[in-house]
Amino acid sequence: MAWFTQFLLLLGSISMLLAAIGLLRFPDFFTRAHAGTKAASLGAGLILLAAVLPLSGQDIAVRVWLTIFFVFLTVPVAGHLLGRAAYLKGLPQWPGKNHDEWNPPAEKENESSS
């Protein structure tokens, strides 16, 4: 059981490290928010799971499982809401982005109206 706990801690730490590197390396707010929410919540969940495995107390285990559930429920939703607010505010996107799903190009609008 100890090796599995250490493996989960290692995976969680690597995920958190990748989230931190993504926050530093990605070019715009939207991709940084993606790294900060998805990878960080996965890392936090794995680290919390590794923390609960060696414990035998049921009350602590329930609290940790509820914390994992709360992190997976709220962090991606908060990241989505921040990204939507930044988009609606007009925050510039990375020029290498292929398409904008909420704002189609003008050519497509003209073709669909004729």
Rg measurement, Å: 19 Å
Oligomer: single chain
- How many structural domains are formed by the residues? 1
**Structural class of the secondary structure composition?**
mainly alpha
Strand content: under 5%
Write the layout of secondary structure elements.
Layout: H1 2-25, H2 29-52, H3 58-89, H4 106-113
Question: Short description, anyone?
Answer:
This protein has 114 residues and is an all-alpha fold.
Task: Give structural attributes.
single chain; 114 residues; mainly alpha; 4 helices
Task: Provide an overview of this structure.
The chain is mainly alpha-helical and 114 residues long. It has one domain (2-94). Helix content is 77%, strand content 0%. Helix 1 runs antiparallel to helix 2 and helix 2 packs antiparallel against helix 3 (58-89).
